[in-house]
């Protein structure tokens, strides 16, 4: 885990402890998050997970806003219990009052769209081409059959793949 991120998590905890005049248990911090989310706070496990790709691409803002955002979830859970709204007034109080940051619910990092392989299936219709996902292609290989809605013929793998 990058040292700067760990340092920022600790700094957020120190600010919260100073503000609330109490100690908070430190979370486990993981860098095992993929996809579109920048970070996730697992409240009952006292665990923070961060996305290493989005961290690398947005380091300064990520350290300032995203880390504080996720730590604020854990602090709110400790202070106010499990019945509060995830981005409710308690969490917003922590974002504004403790961290002096806007209580933004979502990040605006460019997540890009993951390239995916499409498997081309054909029917008897002219221009009857159907791109299948890898999951659907796998189901066909296991024996599942799909039919064209127009000509009702079984769709057959053409042997072609394309990356979209």
Automatic annotation (TrEMBL):
<dbReference type="GO" id="GO:0006508">
    <property type="term" value="P:proteolysis"/>
</dbReference>
<dbReference type="Pfam" id="PF10263">
    <property type="entry name" value="SprT-like"/>
</dbReference>
<keyword id="KW-0482">Metalloprotease</keyword>
<keyword id="KW-0645">Protease</keyword>
<protein>
    <submittedName>
        <fullName>SprT family zinc-dependent metalloprotease</fullName>
    </submittedName>
</protein>
<feature type="domain" description="SprT-like">
    <location>
        <begin position="7"/>
        <end position="158"/>
    </location>
</feature>
<dbReference type="GO" id="GO:0008237">
    <property type="term" value="F:metallopeptidase activity"/>
</dbReference>
<keyword id="KW-0378">Hydrolase</keyword>
<dbReference type="InterPro" id="IPR006640">
    <property type="entry name" value="SprT-like_domain"/>
</dbReference>
<dbReference type="GO" id="GO:0006950">
    <property type="term" value="P:response to stress"/>
</dbReference>
